[in-house]
Amino acid sequence: MPLAPGIGIPGTQIDHIDVSPAVWPGLPLASLAPSLDWLYIQTMGVGDTDETSIIDRYRAARSPLAVADPSDQRFPAFSADALEELDEFGERREMALGDALYRAGEARRDFYVLIEGEVEVVRDDESQQLVVVYGPGQFVGELGLLTGQRTYLTARATRNGSVLVISHDEFRRLMATKPIISDTIFRALIGRRETLRTTSGGEAVQILGSRFSPEALALRTFAVRNRLAYAWIDLEEEDDVGVLLASKGLLLSDTPVVITPTGVLRHPTPGQFAEELGLTYHPIPGRTFDLVVVGVGPAGLAASVYGASEGLDTVALDAVGPGGQAGSSSRIENYAGFPNGISGGDLAARTAVQAQRLGAWLVSPCEVAGLRLENGFHVVSLRDESEIPTRAVIIATGARYLRLAISNLEQFEGNGVYYAATDLETRSCSGSDVIVIGGGNSAGQAAIYLSQQGCGVSIVIRRSDLSSSMSKYLVDRIAVDPHIEILTDTQVRALHGDSHLESVVLEHAPSGDRRAKACAALFCFIGAQPATSWLSGKVALDEKGFILTDRSLTAEVLVDPLFSVREPLPFETSAPGVFAVGDVRLGSMKRVAAAVGEGSSAVRAVHEFLAM
Ligand SMILES: Cc1cc2nc3c(=O)[nH]c(=O)nc-3n(C[C@H](O)[C@H](O)[C@H](O)COP(=O)(O)OP(=O)(O)OC[C@H]3O[C@@H](n4cnc5c(N)ncnc54)[C@H](O)[C@@H]3O)c2cc1C
After folding, report:
1. Domains of the chain and any CATH numbers
2. Helices (H), 110-201
3. CB-based pocket (< 6 A), ligand 1
């Protein structure tokens, strides 16, 4: 058998392998694609001395992560009639074997439909992992087409053929005007993202760090909230961290690290991570939006869906990522239509994609720092000092958790002390003893979820029972859960630990007795305050910081001349054209469904305002 020079001689680097079918019977497309196979072999052969291992790795990499069966809703093939309809939106182009439709890391967002030939999608790193192979009638791409994320996989032709290329603007027009085709594409985009999230296809973007690193937790929270396909490499689970990091040219002091097809980011902030992925807001000179939604929790998401669907040019900004408080709940059981409950993350992700499909632009992390009126427009200013002019604003900034008054709290935040109990936070403590502080529904939900993860849970409350502050269904469940104890009349007084939280000091109020209790994590749900510090002096607030709207606005605060000729609209604040919805609004119900209802309804008032 003809072998490459060097194969079989230990220590020799392979620089040539004969890829003829006689030698490599497993190679597909031998007659048409030797150049691509050659590329793979070359990539895999570097530094390798063992022919068998190259063949095995080649075969593993060439087995696609998903089979593009047209009967699967992730991989539909358009009929000839549908292709004719699509022709109006783009232009047909020839493609030749080896042509890249796009490469990992590009900001290009054209939409490609294959007319003839074959296109493969691969992870363009040393693995050259084949993700999927598309044939005639099928389209190429995933959810990034809607979210604006840079490509993280490469698509290239494995046969000569032709492709219909639809530009991004035309793709938006297509999604807005062809409902049946748009449904098909939308379902496929969502399904493909989920496939990438749950297979090694998503490993094109990696976060490496310790589970005890608050910085890593912030990066993962951003990734999860934005439903990114990525791989989390927990250094605590690696046998030889030094070897792993060295293989990537990294030191422990570099972590957390984000690796993307285009860069290696050492200690990035979520904002830098977003920038690398192409997900940040960049001002567009001369562009004025109809509506800016500040805060993308349930209320802001609903406002975005309704704003975009009712034809308003809408951008929604969030300091963290879509979801808000609801995104920190593992299970919401009182949202109509979901009899088995739904995780806040899932609910937010679905609504975010819905808003984007309808044309809203969702941007995070993007903290809003101020608001002013200029030449009849509202100007929303961001923490990075960029500004967005808009005709109307909906404030949906909800509430921020309250923190415990303990001197060394910061040392353990994200590192044993958490303000959410989702898979992200609980993974590092499952099976261990944990503390939940608070007597409200969020604390109750967290306790039950943690117990289901195998934790021994102690609920710490200042009161003498739960029934006055927690819904009965949660109180009843907690009462029969053998893994949950309730420590009444008790407060946490101190936190102890070295690299992460290890124990707390509890004080029993009536007796003043103090005792140490070992715990792997403390989940804090002691209430929240409205996130309105950025608004001071701009709209009327009550003494606790909640925003006054419509009927709660008194004559003293209705000083704008416009209000001498008309009443405030529903949800309108003391600043005409600025509306407030959800938990941030005085008198709101502080529930997901109520926030969604308010966000949706406020859009009608925005329309009325814009029509004035
Ligand atoms: C753990 C937990 C469990 C819960 N469970 C339930 C439940 O089961 N059922 C239920 O009905 N309710 C539940 N709730 C309450 C419910 O989640 C809230 O009522 C709801 O999320 C409020 O929605 P919102 O959009 O008004 O505000 P929030 O959800 O608070 O969202 C506000 C958003 O604004 C962003 N933001 C704040 N300031 C800025 C700024 N300056 N710039 C940009 N963005 C900003 C934040 O990052 C956040 O994403 C729970 C709450 C928690 C914390």
Report:
1. 1-63 (no CATH), 80-200 (2.60.120.10), 205-277 (3.40.30.10), 289-400+529-611 (3.50.50.60), 409-526 (3.50.50.60)
2. 144-147, 168-177, 179-198
3. 294-300, 317-320, 324-326, 328-329, 332-334, 367-368, 396-399, 441-442, 445, 531, 534, 582-584, 590-593, 595
